[in-house]
Design a protein that fits this description.
heterodimer, A: 664 residues, alpha+beta, Beta-Lactamase, 5 domains, five-stranded mixed sheet, four-stranded antiparallel sheet, 21 helices, B: 265 residues, mainly alpha, globular, membrane (chain B), transmembrane helix (chain B)
Chain lengths: 664, 265
């Protein structure tokens, strides 16, 4: 920021503040045109401040500089108009000063206000016009502003303040000529300015589009409030218009800070710290001075000295803390790695040291403590196409990927998205994130190991059940059929024999074969529920429910007709349903039980009753009621099991995949 | 309804603030203390609201809407109710509720010492005694020793507001002390205005300095907006009212920005 820019801001900021002080000192708020003063003062102060922030950027381009100077011009003109208005209001007799003030307030508002409707939309957001043809619109706006400024300045009119003031220089004919000519250029320029915003809105995407939307929302609100001025009561209307006028530079500020326009983060942070510190010191000084003045036997000079000494003493530590606070607003706890590590430790403790939650805790900590948009963790060697944890809003841009290493091996990858407007992670962010990643890497390695173990277990269970199915079929269709045929032959031979001894021997042999057939059947039933192969899954489950029907127990069955799953999952479903139904019959004292199976992305099994609940049941049964075995069966195939219980009943809910391990 | 088993089974943390079972005796004590502490502000609220609705003492409508009435009762009742509710449920009351109640009592005591006319010390004494009953009856006290972290948006608003509110409080105390005869010698409205001004300034400062009580910024913003609007509508100084209103709006904005930064992530 140059000295020239600082000086250029003086008419706006200085004029606005001086006008407010003058109006307050002279109790000018009740005069006729006083209502416009706060609005003009807000424009006079807010626009040059925004311009100063933009101009303070070291890497500012030519376009950005143009937009900043337009904002400065608008603010400066408003400052002059505000001060002139108050001077003319409070004047008690005509003078050269009031003549100058009258000429200024009647004319300078034109570049101050109408440039906001023409030049600012044309040059927003990057200070460049949308195309070459738009230069005509900008030229028309500039010439139109100049003509209308002269025209309205020369318009013969009087001003009603404490006294009636008349313009020293006026000419109706010249005023009309300039005003009409200027208006004829300004109207198309205004329409073109609106058109340029629409063009930018249509042409742009993503970040640039959001910048336009933010500005349009603020400008739209200002227009709406201005149109509604007639219908709002006096103080409300003024306050609303002042706030809406301030929103436009605030929107530009938002575009700068939040959307990375002009890369002005450093300048904006320093500006916020300076403004915050200045306000704190002024507020602290005035507060202390007022309190000291209220003491008995006070002395103004002593009070002022004590207040000044106090504010001087707190300036340095306050500035340090405010800077840290502003940094925290923008970058979270990046400057305080201990705070980040501490937050991670607290979150891990809150998670109950459950290692499965560590990746999620890591993502949450990165996003919450560093104010980064999003983070996610992928486990190394995980065949799943889904991350193991995600936090924040994952953006469209490429993330920065960091490796989590344990004992020299990559156990996971951490994707972190840079802040809006940044191409990559700031080195300080990266240092902190790497520190977090190193801390949790052993735990994530444990998660990876647990997953691998779970996958191995699932594979073993699937293989075991497949083998059992095959064995059962072999026994049933091979050995079982052979034995059945042998038994038939022996019985036939027994019928044909007429010798008692032979008949007796054949009878014994037939009994032996029959016993062998029964044993084979018992073995096959133990390998896998026979009903699953004989009836299918749906009817096998339905048959389970039919078995528990009894007087005093109403059984409700709702099973998806064509439900199907892998052999291991079918067995798990059958065993869980059988165990849950057996629990109902043995322990619940229920009058109603329902069995529901839904088939969707996963298979859901639900057994619910209206019995006494597990609390009472465990008291009487004195056992775990097979809950552990049910949960184990669900886990074996990669599913989950939940048991909800209360005094009014129990619900067993199992969520199982169609194929083993597909639920992850 | 309780969940017995889940997969994977969670292990619950023992560090969180878990509700403590509250016995019948403790609840009876709480109810009695709450009744004593809330009786006066509730009766006052109903009475002042009735006066506002029926148009009694219309000359004092600004005071009825603010220091003598609605704002004071909000600052008085809301922390008490928060303390009682948490105590009833066996939870530890929030730090904000604890500090808000202490600030109200301390500011009232300070203002009563500075402006002892009109029965102010009696009123503050009543609040101190009944408030201490509530604190004694609580199963868990609020955590008052918490970390300080400067909010760069709220602190300047707080100090700017205190530069407006504390001189105003000083003026009101002077007016109260000057009112030795007439209506205000019996009805210490100026004391009330000074009281809420000090409380609001303290709210803002606490909200700006202590993250655990940042919610007080919302109360400050609402009260300041109410105070400023009432001042504008009922003929108080326009500059003062606008400044108070602006402080309320700025505090609301700072609070929203702070919350947005947290919520966005």
């Amino acid at each position: 920021m140059t000295l020239g820019a600082a000086l250029a801001a003086v008419p706006g900021i200085g004029g606005g503040l001086l006008a407010l002080a003058l109006a307050a000192a002279n109790e000018a708020w009740d005069l006729a045109v006083a209502g416009q003063v706060p609005v003009d003062a807000v424009v006079a102060i807010a626009y040059p401040m925004t311009a100063l922030v933009v101009l303070s950027s070291p890497g500012l381009r030519r376009g950005g500089r143009s937009l900043a100077w337009i904002l400065m011009l608008a603010g400066g003109c408003s400052g002059i108009v505000t001060l002139s208005t108050v001077v003319a209001q409070v004047a008690t007799e005509p003078s050269t000063t009031t003549d100058i003030a009258l000429m200024l307030l009647s004319s300078v508002w034109v570049p101050g206000f109408l440039s906001l409707l023409t030049l600012v939309p044309l040059f927003y957001p990057d200070g460049l016009l949308p195309g070459r043809l738009w230069r005509l619109a900008a030229l028309a706006a500039a010439v139109g502003l100049a003509l209308v400024t002269v025209g309205v300045g020369l318009y013969p009119e009087s001003f009603e303040g404490r006294i009636r003031l008349t313009k020293p220089v006026s000419n109706l004919g010249v005023a009309q000529t300039f005003t009409y000519a200027g208006a004829a250029m300004l109207l198309p320029a205004f329409l073109a300015a609106l058109g340029s915003l629409v063009v930018r809105l249509v042409r742009t995407r993503g970040l640039a589009r959001r910048q336009v939307v933010v500005f349009l929302a603020a400008a739209g609100l200002l227009v709406a409030v201005t149109v509604a001025q007639g219908s709002l009561p006096s103080p409300v209307g003024i306050v609303a218009q002042a706030l809406a006028a301030a929103l436009v530079p605030v929107a530009i500020g938002v575009a700068i800070t939040r959307h990375g326009l002009y890369d002005l983060d450093v300048a904006v942070r320093r500006s916020i710290v300076a403004a915050s510190l200045g306000t704190c010191l002024a507020g602290g000084y005035l507060t202390l001075f007022a309190v000291l003045q209220a003491l008995p036997r006070h002395e103004s000079a002593l009070s002022a000295a004590v207040a000044a000494g106090f504010t001087g003493a707190i300036m340095q530590p306050l500035a340090k803390r405010l800077t840290a606070g502003v940094d925290r607003m923008f970058y979270g706890d990046r400057a305080d790695p201990f705070a980040v590590a501490s937050a991670l430790a607290t979150s891990l403790t809150d998670a109950g040291l459950d290692v499965a939650r560590v990746p999620q805790v890591l993502c949450d900590t990165v996003v919450e403590t560093l104010r980064l948009p999003a983070a996610r963790v992928w486990l190394a060697g995980d065949s799943s196409d889904r991350p193991v944890a995600t936090a924040g809003a994952v953006g469209h841009g490429p993330p920065v990927q960091l490796e989590l290493r344990h004992r020299g091996e990559v156990v996971a990858a951490l994707d972190v998205w840079p802040r809006a407007g940044e191409q990559t992670l700031h080195p300080r962010d990266e240092v902190v994130v790497r520190g977090l990643a190193d801390q949790v890497a052993p735990a994530v390695a444990a998660v990876q190991l647990h997953r691998q173990l779970q996958r191995s277990r699932e594979a073993l269970v699937a293989a075991r059940e497949d083998e059992r199915l095959q064995l059962r079929r072999d026994l049933h269709d091979g050995l079982g059929a052979t034995l059945a045929g042998l038994r038939l032959q022996v019985e036939t031979a027994q019928d044909l024999s007429d010798q008692p001894d032979v008949e007796h021997l054949l009878g014994s042999a037939g009994d032996g074969v029959a016993q062998a057939v029964a044993e084979v059947r018992a073995i096959t039933d133990g390998l896998r529920p026979a009903a699953l192969d004989e009836l299918g899954l749906a009817r096998a489950l339905s048959a389970l429910a039919d078995r528990v029907r009894a007087p005093g127990l109403e059984v409700e069955v709702d099973i998806a007709e064509h439900v199907s799953a892998a052999p291991a999952v079918e067995v798990a479903l059958h065993r869980i349903a059988a165990e849950a139904l057996a629990n109902v019959v043995r322990h619940s004292a229920a009058r109603r039980v329902s069995l529901r199976v839904r088939d969707g992305r996963h298979v859901e099994l639900e057994v619910s009753d209206d019995g006494v609940g597990l609390g009472a049941a465990t008291t009487t049964a004195g056992s775990g009621l097979g809950l552990a075995s049910m949960r184990q069966r669900a886990e074996e195939v990669g599913g989950t099991l939940e048991v909800r219980t209360s005094d009014s009943g129990t619900t067993v809910h199992a969520l199982l995949p169609h194929a083993v391990g597909d639920l992850r | 309804m309780t969940t017995h088993t889940t997969t994977p089974s969670p292990v619950h943390s023992t560090t969180g603030s878990t509700p403590r079972p509250v016995g019948r005796g403790r609840r009876s004590l709480l109810a009695l203390a709450g009744l004593l502490a809330c009786a006066v502000p509730v009766v006052f609220t109903i009475n002042i609201t009735r006066m506002l609705v029926t148009g009694i003492d219309t000359d004092h409508r600004f005071h009825q809407l603010t220091g003598q009435g609605e704002i004071l009762f909000a600052l008085w009742l809301v922390p008490l109710l928060a303390l009682l509710r948490a105590g009833w449920q066996g939870r530890r009351p929030g730090t904000a509720a604890g500090w808000a109640h202490l600030v109200l009592v301390a500011a009232g005591a300070g203002c009563a010492v500075a402006a002892p006319g009109g029965g102010a010390p009696l009123l503050v004494g009543l609040i101190v005694v009944t408030g201490s009953f509530v604190w004694a009856a609580l199963p868990l006290r609020p955590r008052l020793r918490v970390g300080v972290q400067v909010d760069p948006l709220l602190v300047p608003v707080a100090l700017a507001a205190s530069a407006v509110l504390l001189p105003y409080a000083v003026d009101q105390i002077a007016l109260q002390n000057a009112a030795t005869t007439g209506y205000h010698s019996q009805n210490p409205h100026f004391f009330d205005m000074a009281w809420i001004s000090v409380v609001l300034a303290a709210y803002a400062l606490l909200a700006g300095l202590v993250p655990a009580v940042r919610v007080l910024a919302t109360g400050f913003a609402v009260a300041m907006a109410w105070l400023g609007t009432a001042g504008l509508a009922l003929g108080e100084s326009t500059a003062w009212s606008l400044t108070v209103l602006a402080c309320g709006v700025l505090a609301a904005g700072a609070s929203v920005v702070g919350r947005g930064r947290t919520a966005r992530n």
